[in-house]
Amino acid sequence: MHHISSLISGCCKNDRNSQRDLYHWLYDYAMKICYRYVSRQEEAEELANESFIKLFKNIQQFDGTRGGETEALLKGWFKRIVVNTCIDHLRRTHLKLVSQEINEEGETFADSQESGIDKLMYLEIIDAIKKLTPVYRTVFNLFVIEGFSHEEIAKQLGISVGASKSNLSKARHNLRKIITEQTEYKLYA
After folding, report:
1. 63 and 21 in one domain?
2. Is the pTM of this model over 0.85?
3. From the CA atom positions of the chain, what is the Rg in Å?
């Protein structure tokens, strides 16, 4: 997308058309990230929209001149905004969310460049991750998917490093169990 720089420039000037186009371009990307942390569509949409508000409010701080493709730099910068928005939300709810039913609508937000097999594998993995408790799911996402260290996770969530490591270990154990059960079910179905 070669016109990303012009969209960013337009957003810096509060141009509604530029904001709309950037929103449409990044919406599925934001929803994918949000669904790693919450399982209800309404909650994911709320977090995505809150992330976009932060993006537009702070777009002047984006530095697209650091080298590399502006598109990739913007996605990386926005990903950090979305992840932090999700973490803030989980902090506000004190990570005491009850397990919620998985919403089938949430699985419709795969990147348009993915193949059918990529989408299927993605859906199965996300489905399994959503079955983890909110605390395990959050620590797993932050460590495995977002690349945070245990020290960073502990600081972000207000827990000890040991609790982060323990939650990750339990999340991995439970995830293996969930995926094994899903695979066995498919083999015998």
Report:
1. yes
2. no
3. 18
Can you point out the beta strands (E) in 7-134? none
CA distance 48 to 144: 21
Residue 143 is part of which domain span? 131-189
Per-residue pLDDT band at 42 (split at 50, 70, 90) = very high
Find the CATH number of the domain harbouring 26. Answer: 1.10.1740.10
Planar angle of CA 13, 19, 24, nearest 5 degrees: 160
Q: What sign does the dihedral 73-75-80-85 (CA atoms) show?
A: positive
Same domain, 173 and 84: no
55-89 pLDDT, tens digit each: 999 999 998 777 678 888 999 999 999 999 988 88
CA-based nearest residue to 152, from 89, 101, 97, 80? 80
Number of domains comprising the chain: 2
CA atoms within 13 A on the CB side of 53: 7
